[in-house]
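Practice problem: predict the structure.
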Amino acid sequence: MKVILLKSVPKLGKKDEVITVPDGYAQNALLPKKLAIIATDQAVAALKRTQENKITEKKIQHELLDKAIESLAGQTLVYHTKKNEKGSLFSKVTESDISKTLLDQHRISIDAKLMTIKEGHIKQIGTYTVDITDGDYKSEFIVSVE
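Answer:
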């Protein structure tokens, strides 16, 4: 029996995959636990539409990210924090802190999970590069910690 997995099942497949399993396994294990649905023509067509919509949505998000990063071109994001006399910060600056600052200063919303600070967590005053990666999409911008 062909089924579409609604959740990832170990040793069977990942979410949204169309797989063939024995009838008894599908009827007694997968379908009652709502781990899968029967792969009818309508269900497969709906799955393809959903996957195409996700791809289109990702493209739009990447275009918006490009425009947002281009608006930062030539500018440096400035993050203010407390430091000691030697220039060391009292607390490290993370990707989520940078994401909040971007939203506050430039009204650009970028998920912190997509950001990576090249030098690791920021613990000193200075200028740092932040990479933005989402699948094949890559971009970067500069953060100045003062």
